[in-house]
Amino acid sequence: MLTIKLLKNQTIFTAARLFIFCLVTVICYFAWPGSGVSHEASAQAKQSVPADQRVAVLFFHAVGEEPSNPNTMPLKDLEETFQALQDSDYHPISLEQFHAFIDGQAEVPQRAVLLTFDDGYSDVYSMIFPLTKRYNYPAVSFAVTKWFDRYPRPEKSREHLSVEEAKELLSSGLWQIGGHSYDGHRLIRGAHNQEGAYLTTRSLMERDFRLESEAEYRARVWQDINLNTMALKLAGVSEPKDFAFPYGAYNEDLVKLLNEAGYTYLFTNNQGLNGPGEDPSCIRRIGAGRCAKETIAILEKYFAQGNN
Question: For 108, which DSSP code?
Fold first, then answer.
């Protein structure tokens, strides 16, 4: 009996020594400099791969059945585009999220997209709004604010958003509205009788057979900007900060005047993605394709590039 007891105690002692040896070996392996994986490396390995901190600002125009108009997308194709964004793991973000991101104050989901619709046509309310509610996608309408007027426009045109519809879009929490000029979405005659964008061209004063002066040009543009601000506020935008250049045309004077009027985030038609902390006066946008397949292919091309 004594022999059995001694053997049992020796077995327990041997097992304990083996356990302690293994424990010390493991500790030394991870803690010894240059051996195995350090605590710091181990901690880094546990961290997830950082998200791609770039945003694609997609811009669309009208929605409807106009086969001859390349800027008009059939509603069916827009719906397929929304579904393709979801299936391809793209994440539409709100305008507020984009502001915080471009200011360098917040991160965004990987493969983030901001959806924008130019001009402010009525199909934004009648066709696109229900679709964004179904997919819970935030979006922005850059509206030509003169067209909010309840009286019909004298020129031939598509039907446009009313003030009441704009207010309902805003109250949904999904939509924001930015400026696209008051009466500046048109061309005017400039030097050498050539047409140019209203907000960037010094007008040919036909009555006096001369170009308007720099001061006259700035006064005209300043008036349009302030009328745009007033119209946006009447529609419910408390502090207008966002503006998309008509035709993507801009110059130093226009940027300066918009900044002075309180517009911080200026959207161009320059192609590319946007990174945190970049100049908010020169936000890049990407034109959507004619269908879902084209749009996803365009996004994949830009996100596959290392730089904007």
Answer: -
